[in-house]
Structure formats: structure tokens, C-alpha cells
Amino acid sequence: MNNKTNNRTKLIKARVTEDEQILVKTKAKYYGYKNLSKYLIDAAIYEKVTYVDLDNHQLLYDAYAQNTKELKKITKEIRHISKYATDLDNTTIQNITSLMFTILRNQKDMLKLIDEKLNLKVWQEINRNKQGMEK
Questions:
Q1: Number of domains the chain is built from
Q2: Taking the mean position of all CA atoms in its chain, how far away is CA 21?
């Protein structure tokens, strides 16, 4: 197979959710890819794909989505402060502080959900099977 980039003339489009996009970009960065296209090509061609439908995954997604909403609120507040802040009143400071604590609480709640609700038996079984195949 010829992998020269100058021979790449075909385009593949894929739609993803915001969460999927964040996960793909994070994984590409983790593996040291600077170019997302190169990572996607390598992942599609050379990586094994394992799909695991973990118990209670929707609870985790919902917690993550709620945390993302809170992060967006804080980002908006910080932008507002950085643009217009000459004098901050106590209410603004309390609102920002409250939002920051809400995010911290949500992160702790997500960790708690993972510990309490996520069924890792399936994941452990898959890892055991992979290790057995690699030996």
C-alpha cells in the first residue's frame, strides 16, 4: 500500500458529536500526532477496534454533558470579566466562585458515578482475552 500524502486525493467525511470529537483529538494528541488526519488514517488501518457497551454508560455521558455546560458558563463569565472588568462587585465574584465550585462538585460526582455505576467486569474480561491472545 502506498502511503505517500501527495497521492491522497480522496476525502472521507464523518460526523461526530462534540464529545466524540474531544475524545478523538485527545487520543491523537496522546499518541503524539500533530495531524488529526494522519491519526485517523493510522487508527482506521492499523489499530484494533474494540467496542464495549459498558453498563450505565448513559449516566456517565449525562454527567459529562452537565459538566461541559458548567464549563461553558464559566468560560463565558471569564470572557466577560476579561473584557469589561474594571470593578467587580461582590455578586459577580460570588457567581464565578459558585460556578467554579459547581464544576468541582460535578467532577467529584462523575468520579463517584464511575466508581459506583460503571461495570468494569466487561472491560476486565476483554483485557484478559487480549492479553491471552498476545502471548
A1: 2
A2: 8
Question: Does one domain contain both 116 and 69?
Answer: yes
Q: Is residue 40 part of a domain?
A: yes
- Identity of the residue numbered 70: E
- Note the pLDDT tens digit of each residue in 21-36: 888 888 888 888 888 9
**Cell numbers describing residue 44:** 482506521
- Note the pLDDT of residue 15: 92
Q: Which of 104, 80, 105 is nearest to 92 (CA)?
A: 80
Residue 122 near residue 52, CB atoms below 8 Å: yes
Determine the pLDDT at residue 60.
75
Amino acid at 41: I
CA–CA gap between residue 91 and residue 28 (Å, rounded)? 41
Identify the band that residue 132 occupies on the pLDDT scale cut at 50, 70 and 90. Answer: low
Domain holding 26, by residue range, is 15-50
